[in-house]
Amino acid sequence: MSIFMEGSSGQTRRLSASGRGSKQGDVRAHNERLLLSLIRRHGSLTKAEISRITGLSAQAISVIMRRLEDDGLLHRGNVLRGKIGQPSTPMALAEDGAFSLGVKIGRRSVELVLIDFVGNVRRTLREAYAWPMPDAIIDFTRRSVSLVMSEMAPLLRERIAGLGIASPFDLWQWEGGIGAPSGAMDVWRSADLVNSLDNDFPFPVYLQNDATAACGAEFVFGRGHEFSNYLYLFIGFFIGGGVVLNGGVFTGPSGNAGAIGSFPVIRQDGRAAQLIDVASAANLENRIRAAGVDPSPIWKQPDGWSGFAEFIDDWIRDIAPHLANAIVGSCGVIDFSAVFIDGGFPADVRSRLVQATRSELARLNLQGLNPPEIIEGTVGNQARAIGGACLPFFDKFMLTSMPMLNDIV
Predict the structure, then answer these.
(1) Is CATH 3.30.413.10 the classification given to domain 223-378?
(2) Closest of 4, 88, 95 to residue 50, by C-alpha
(3) Separation of alpha carbons 162 and 198, rounded Å
(4) How much is the pLDDT for 353?
(5) Is residue 216 within 8 Å of residue 394, measured between CB atoms?
(6) Which of the ends of the chain has fewer CB neighbours closer than 10 A, N or C?
(7) How far is 379 from 109, CA to CA, in rounded Å?
(8) Are 162 and 392 spatial neighbours (Cβ–Cβ below 8 Å)?
(9) Cβ of 358: how many Cβ atoms within 10 Å?
């Protein structure tokens, strides 16, 4: 009952939806997820509103809400008066109701976040490196989780739902692109982060593709819930993507759906390439280094992009046409109503890139297509780490596909 759909079990470790083995227990867990998912989407809801949406009886909803409130997952809002009938009390998610940890494995840094039940980032830890190695990632994770847990009150520490790791798949393939020595990344072929960390913590460990995880973060904590079908693009050191279909994050049989970086493109010199070769922050890094300037601030400092305005102008101008072409090609296969663009860069850079992509899209021949709305992602630079932290929440507290609510009895 994860919100990740279609074959993702091979890439995302999950637990059962409920510890109960009976059908009655399954229904109970399902209805709890239903209410939590609805309240997460709407911010707060009264019993009457939930009854209208789901068709569940007021009595059933009262029982479920009381149980979730007793578990600390919901809290009561202010009583609503002045309407017809009895005053009603909206229920909302409790910030301290649950917590989750997320680790993002990047090409230049590793990051751990602690988020609460409504998505606030409570703690961030980060380390930079020349390229990622499994032992270093495992050591960082153990140290960081231990530190974060030591800072939490015992009651809150017990509410950690799990640890989700957001990592590029097949990291050994990127050896040349990140400047690692030949053979240095081969160790990733046999690395198993989940099994290596599984016995270290009193909660489960999950793994998902980093861009897909970022897509999940936008779906839950951003504007993603406004659309049933959309393409999500995240531009980090390389570019990756995610797909949402029928209100759920679609991962595909191998967990790699939305691998937009493999999209074929033509360079300005007429040579064939992939989108990952021409539309990633690695290109910006290479431009800066070629000019004899140290590019490391764009990875190490939150405002590190501010000193590279001239390089950024050229970078946006060059990659926007490639993004537009990839979007058109994707929409020719699936009728996406929207495309989100986010990345590991400041908000002003994201805004400019989105606007440039819109302009390039308008120049293309869109006959036979319904042009998608190009939208700025809202989660930002930490989307992959937050997406990793979403994985335990998906497993324990959310339904698979929200547009299917009308089918729920």
Answers:
(1) no
(2) 88
(3) 10
(4) 98
(5) yes
(6) C
(7) 18
(8) yes
(9) 17
pLDDT for the residue 107: 85
**Residue 2 clears pLDDT 70, i.e. is over it:** no
Query: Confidence class of residue 256 from pLDDT cuts 50, 70 and 90?
Result: confident
DSSP-based three-state secondary structure for 94: coil
- Tokens standing for residue 300: 């190490």
Angle, CA 363 vertex, CA 358 and CA 366 arms, to 5°: 90
User: 39 — phi, psi (to 5°)?
Assistant: -65, -35
List all residues 6 or more positions away from 254 whose beta carbon is below 8 Å from its beta carbon: 7, 10, 11
On the question of a common fold for 4-96 and 223-378, the answer reads no
E strands, 42-120, where? 44-45, 74-76, 91-93, 99-105, 109-116
Q: Inform me whether the pLDDT recorded for 155 exceeds 70.
A: yes
Which range has the worst mean pLDDT, 15-19, 105-109, 262-266, 267-271? 15-19
Hey, is 370 helix, strand or coil? coil
Q: Per residue in 267-287, pLDDT tens?
A: 888 899 999 999 999 999 999
Angle (CA) 73 75 76, round 5°: 155
Q: Any residues with CB less than 8 A from the CB of 60 and at least 6 apart, and which?
A: 31
From 22-26, 46-50, 128-132, 307-311, the region with the lowest mean pLDDT: 22-26
Mean pLDDT (whole number) for 114-126: 97
Question: What would the pLDDT profile of 344-369 be if each residue is shown by its tens digit?
Answer: 999 999 999 999 999 999 999 999 99
Q: Spelled out in words, what is the top-level CATH class assigned to the domain 4-96?
A: mainly alpha
Q: What is the DSSP letter of 333?
A: T
Q: Of 263 and 409, which is predicted with more confidence? A: 263
Burial per residue of 241-276, b for 16 or more beta-carbon CB atoms within 10 angstroms, e otherwise: bbbbbebbbbbbeebbbbbbbebebeeeeeeeebbb
Question: What residue ranges do the domains of the chain occupy?
Answer: 4-96, 97-213+386-393, 223-378
Residues 6+ apart with CB under 8 A from 286: none
Instruction: For residue 389, give Cα distances in angstroms to 19, 98, 250, 383, 384.
Output: 21, 11, 18, 10, 9
Four-way CATH pick for 97-213+386-393: 3.30.390.30, 3.40.50.300, 3.30.420.40, 3.30.200.20: 3.30.420.40
Place of tokens 């908000």: 347
Tokens of 204: 């489960």
